[in-house]
Every structure is written in C-alpha cells, then in structure tokens.
Amino acid sequence: MTLSQTSSFKTLSGAPACARLVLIPALLTACLLAVTGCAGGKDTRNLPLIGAASSSKAGVPTTVNRYLWGATLETINFLPVSSADPIAGLVLTDWYVNPETPDERFKVNVYILDQSLRADALRVSVFRQSLTNGAWIDSRVNPATPRELENAILTRARQLRLNTLDQ
Predict the structure, then answer these.
(1) Residue 61: is it exposed, middle or buried by C-beta count within 10 angstroms (0-12/13-18/19+)?
(2) pTM score > 0.70 for this model?
C-alpha cells in the first residue's frame, strides 16, 4: 500500500482520509488477533480475551478474564443485552419481562473487575420494577438474587476453564 497526497486529502490506496480511520484500527486488530493466536506451543489458558491495548495509565488492566466473560454471556443469555464491552468488562441488559409475570420486569448489569478467575472479580447488580397503575415503579430486589447470579457465573466460568484444561 502506498500513501500518496492529493490536494488536501491523504489517501491510502485511493481511500479517503475518513476511510483510513476505519481501515487502520481494523488492520491493527487483525494483526493483534493473529499474533495472539500464534502461541507457539505455549500455555494459552490464561491469555486475555483480547490483546492488551495500550493504556495511558500504567498497570491498569485493559481486558477481562475470558472465562468470566463467556460464562456471563451464557448465564444471562435469556436477557436482552443492550451493551457488552469485553475491554471494560461490562454487560448491560435491557428490561426483561417474564411472560408468566407480566407485571414485573428485571434488568441486570454485570461488571468484570479483574483478569483473574476469582469471586471478587465479578459484581452483579439487579434492578426490578413493578407495574402499578400503568407505570413502572422501582421495587426492592431480594439481596440474594445478585449473589446467586454471581455464583452461577462463577460456577460456569470454572467449568469453562476445566473444559479447556481437559483439551
């Protein structure tokens, strides 16, 4: 690929400058994924989900534990995911109404806080609303519910890790 200059726009193989904003990060991501896939026979069980991105803050983790990430998505797969960010370790769901109880709905936020597969690397927040007089009103959530979801995610993450060790 050659970089040439035409009038006031720089081009990359004939692409306008705005296309370079898309092409260059895509190429860098592809290279990074190719390099992390070539472990050369090394133990790859604890590699991050995505290669470490450069950070302006030294020592700040930029990826999350891949087993916790996969287990989170599998455990809450019945909920509509509105946002999922594997770099920040954040999964936000949209409101879910169980067809058996149409007068209440739930929303879940999962935060993966560390690269380690530990109980303190995971935080789950659950929100509940009840339908009262045609309006959704915030309701109390059983304190055991987030803890049960955390335990389910951790159990599944451990299973995923054990399955990787067996292969």
Answers:
(1) middle
(2) no
